Amino acid sequence: MNTKLRRLVCGTSGTLLVIALFMPWTEVHDADRTAWGLWRLTLPLCAALAVCALTTAITGGRIGLNRPDVSIIGATDGLGVITTVTLAWLLCYDFPAQASRQPALVLALASAAAAAFAAADYGPLRGAAWFPRLADDE
């Protein structure tokens, strides 16, 4: 995926994820619940993913986090996969019995998946090294 498309998808996903966090995810007994009221784990995961996706969109993602070879793109990819799997699991297997699903939950799931796919490194599938050497190591 080229850099402009990655930045566009990550920016859009991060923005939609932030919007989804403020919308109701479920309706239980005529009361709406947001991400925090439904599952305590989802709000921090979605917020962290939104911040990483927006940072990837703004900076291009080539910023080292704690080491030069760990970039914000890697954090967006990892958090995107974890958030997507968590939301899918909660949506399919751990959803409250008396609750109805709202569109914001599906929006959050789709945004997390889009951010994960946009930030993923598909180079090893095309024959690139799994762990590329840094330019400073030579």
UniProtKB/TrEMBL annotation:
Residue intervals passing through the bilayer: 7-25, 37-58, 70-91, 103-123
Sorted UniProt keywords: Membrane, Transmembrane, Transmembrane helix
Protein name as it appears in the record: Uncharacterized protein
